[in-house]
Description:
This protein has 5 helices and 4 strands. By secondary structure, the protein is of the alpha+beta class. Strands 2-1-4-3 form a 4-stranded antiparallel beta sheet.
Amino acid sequence: MRLLRDRKGQVRVIEAFFASVLLLSCLTLIPAQTHPKNSTGNIAWKAENVLLTLDGDGQLASLVDNHDWATLGKSVESALPLTTWFNLTVYDKDLNILNEFPISNGGAVSDKIVSFDYVCVSQNSTYAVYVLQLQLSVVD
């Protein structure tokens, strides 16, 4: 008898039903926001990720200190997909270009070129500061 008079459970079930209907209608009516595959933000993220990865153990500053541009170019190229063009320019603290020849893997593959600047500090006793400008372009 007591179970027939207790209607709190029924109200909770109805309340849960309406809440789930509300959530499902919101999910179906609001369109999902998708970003284009090669959006500018995605390309800039790739540039930042490549330079952060190479600088994680101080390798980037070491290559710049030794003016080992060929190894630096190969390192950047190996960290990027094959469909990505890059151009890397290394500057000193006064923004004078340090690399005497281009560090690149060819010509730009798209009109959409993203440039990312990264500040790198040498770990040796000279405490040299470098600015690396990595430009990326991805095949559309």
